[in-house]
Design brief:
This protein is mainly alpha-helical. The longest helix has 32 residues. It is rod-shaped and about 145 Å long. 61% of the residues lie in helices and 0% in strands. Helix 3 runs antiparallel to helix 5.
Length: 278
């Protein structure tokens, strides 16, 4: 139902309730005069009874739990009381013309006492129940709604087993495991360690973190790969040209790795020269 249809439904309900209140107002006013109320009190008496019914209905729509049950009980009680008084007003034509005696609603003593007690107790009850309902509505706290961002994890095996369907484990294909012995792989000989240049004792200036977008996507090369690449690039270089800065630019690597490669290349050339001289 869209908003326009809901609005028309509420307006129709207000019209029906207003007409029903007008019909009941005439009977309750005559009842109030029969129990000794003056003209002003008799005019306000229908608002005390039927008005509290409307208040209890609104409170029942707002409250929850035990408070809502209390509002519904108040609504049912005052609806029944209004029905009884309207019924008595229809049985006694004398009430219509105001010819009945003061505080006489029935011919029998016990019936008259009960009806007078009911009619006079409704205003007092409206004060008590109306105040209680308003206090409950003002102190009502709606239940907290769950966070839509929180995801609910459901076990598929449990859900399928509750529905009598095979679980994921039962329907998954079985994988045969090969029980043959695993061949032993001979360990690879360790690569020769390169000579590491002594680290500088001079403190370095602190730099900021390099952003992820500015980092190079080139794979990291090992020392062995750097040395092999440096051999091919510097094969024709004289010994004097084997500097850390020159190797760094040729290999596009860090200064520390360039120094390590430089020392390794110089050591190799010295070893080769010694072998030739010998």
């Amino acid at each position: 139902m869209n908003r326009k249809a809901k609005t028309l439904l509420v307006l129709a309900l207000v019209v029906v309730v207003g007409m029903a209140f007008r019909v009941s107002w005439n009977a309750l006013r005559d009842i109030a005069k029969a129990i000794g109320a003056d003209d002003t009190a008799a005019t306000l008496y229908p608002f005390v009874v039927d008005g509290l019914m409307a208040l209890a209905l609104v409170a029942a729509l707002v409250l929850t739990g035990e408070a809502r049950k209390f509002a519904l009980r108040v609504l049912a009680g005052y609806t029944l009381a209004s029905l009884v008084l309207n019924y008595v007003h229809g049985l006694l034509p004398e009430l219509h013309g105001e010819s009945i005696g003061w505080s006489r609603l029935a011919s029998g003593d016990w019936a008259n006492w009960a009806l007078v007690l009911l009619a006079t107790s409704l205003p007092v009850g409206s004060i008590y129940f109306g105040s209680d309902l308003v206090a409950k509505v003002l102190h009502h706290r709606p239940p907290a709604e769950p966070d839509p961002q929180e995801s609910v994890q459901i076990d598929p095996n449990r859900l399928m087993s509750d529905q009598g369907e095979p679980t994921v484990e039962e329907t998954a294909p079985r994988v045969e495991v090969d029980s043959s012995p695993i061949p032993v792989v001979e360990p690879i000989a360790a690569l020769p360690q390169l000579a590491v240049a002594a680290e500088s004792t001079r403190p370095r200036r602190a730099t900021g973190r390099v952003p992820a977008a500015a980092r190079s996507s080139r794979p990291v090369r090992t020392e062995v790969e750097l040395l092999a690449e440096a051999r091919s690039l510097t094969e024709s270089w004289p010994v004097e040209k084997l500097t850390g800065e020159g190797i760094r630019k040729a290999l596009r690597t860090s200064p520390a790795k360039a120094r390590v490669v430089r020392e390794a290349l110089k050591a190799e050339r010295e070893r080769d020269a010694a072998a030739v001289a010998g």
